[in-house]
Amino acid sequence: MGGIAGLAALAQVPLAHGALAAPRPPSGGYPFSLGVASGDPSPDGFVLWTRLAPDPLAAHGGGMRPQPVAVEWKVATDEAMTKVVRQGTVAALPELAHSVHVEPTGLRPDREYWYQFRYGADLSPVGRTRTTPAPGTRVSSMSFAFASCQNWSNGYYPAYRHLAGEDIDLVVHLGDYVYEGGIPADGGYRRTPVPATLSEQCRTLDRWRLQYALYKTDPDLQLAHARFPWIVTWDDHEVVNDYAGEESQYAGSIKELRAAAYQAFYEHQPLRRASIPQTDEMRLYRRLGYGDLAEFNVLDGRQYRSVPPCGWGEAPACAAGYDPSVTMLGRRQESWLLDGLAASGARWNVLANNVMMGRLDHDGPSGDILWHDAWDGFPAARNRLTDHLAQAEVSNPVIITGDWHSTFVNDIKRDFDRPDSPVVATEFVGTSISSNGDGEVYGPYYGPMIQYNPHIRFFDGDRRGYVRCTLDRGQWRTDLRMVTTVSRSDAPAYTFASFAVEDGTPGAHQA
Ligand SMILES: [Fe+2]
Question: Which part of the chain is the PhoD-like phosphatase metallophosphatase domain (predicted)?
Answer without folding.
Answer: 144-480
